[in-house]
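Tutorial, part two.
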Amino acid sequence: RTALQVFPSPVLIVDQDVAVVDYNAAAAGLVADGHTIMHSRAGEILHCINVDEAHGGCGRHPACKHCMVRHSVGKAFSGGAVTKQKAKVKIVSDKGVKEMVFLVTAAPLEYAGRRLVMLVLDDISELEVLRGLIPICAWCHKIRNDKEYWESVESYLGRHYDVDFSHGICSSCLKKMEEELEEKDK
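Running the prediction step on this input gives:
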């Protein structure tokens, strides 16, 4: 129990139906006032958008078949291996529906002769937004890399996304180029 409390991220100890049998203080912060964590399923604790739409709650909606939290727990139970997966979760808050991104770690464990899974939920929503931003020069379209150097779009994307480029000229630019050449010849 003491070991769980040192984790700064929410930690849930869950059974095969993703129902909570133990949790840490960070996980308690996920729950709205008046709700309980014990024996609730992860989707109910995270306020998943599908919980209220399904008779029986978390795990009973057709969309739950694709839930990465449930999938991670299932993999930990079936294969006995630690899994780490990114999961996008639509949750209901007082401001409406919002999408969050979690790094979900599921690790199998045995306690008192019972097979369980330790589920760690790291909120990486902000990191995902920042990761999607690419600083590009408005004038020459070079991209600033991590070392604060400016490099061509082709070079940057080639290194980061393993892509190659072929070059051509679009019809608009071809027309402009032809007009400029005609103007120079006059």
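The chain has a mean pLDDT of 83. In part three we will examine how such features are distributed along the chain.
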